[in-house]
Design brief:
3-stranded antiparallel β-sheet; 3 helices; alpha+beta; single chain; 54% helix
Length: 140
């Protein structure tokens, strides 16, 4: 699911909490795969190269690939959550995460964006506060 439909389905606060949990699970996976790579690399012996050494090298390369992928996922998910979270407080009444999505789009779309600006990696959201009715755009 994309960001907009997910926020509409579960609400911003639960979406944000789930994004933080997801990103930190990725960080834990990165950490554990780095430990696996280091432990497997310690057991590699090139003096007697055989199936054991080849399988340990395969584990090392697999763990390094998983570590890299998990780190990139951690950074991406956390950055997306913080991008939306930093602007989710209503400018009118200062309530956090209590809004409804009115419109969404990318940098090339909509009257809310500067056409000269660089494209955003995530869709912008036009939201309205459920408490006071103030409209604003996330991210700004």
């Amino acid at each position: 699911m994309d960001v907009v439909s997910r926020i509409r389905k579960v609400g911003f606060r639960k979406w944000y909490e789930r994004q933080l949990i997801d990103s930190h699970l990725s960080l834990t996976t990165c950490f554990l795969s780095a430990i696996t790579a280091a432990a497997s690399l310690e057991e590699v012996s090139f003096a007697r190269f055989g199936w054991k050494t080849a399988s340990l090298l395969a584990i090392v390369f697999g763990a390094i690939a998983l570590c890299w992928y998990s780190w990139r996922r951690y950074i991406t998910v956390l950055e997306r959550a913080e991008t939306y979270g930093s602007r989710s407080t209503c400018p009118g009444c200062k309530s956090y995460g209590r809004f409804e999505i009115l419109a969404a789009g990318h940098a090339a779309e909509g009257p809310y964006l500067d056409p000269q600006a660089a494209p955003l990696p995530y869709p912008w959201l036009r939201v309205r506060c459920r408490k006071c009715g103030t409209d604003w755009r996330i991210p700004d």
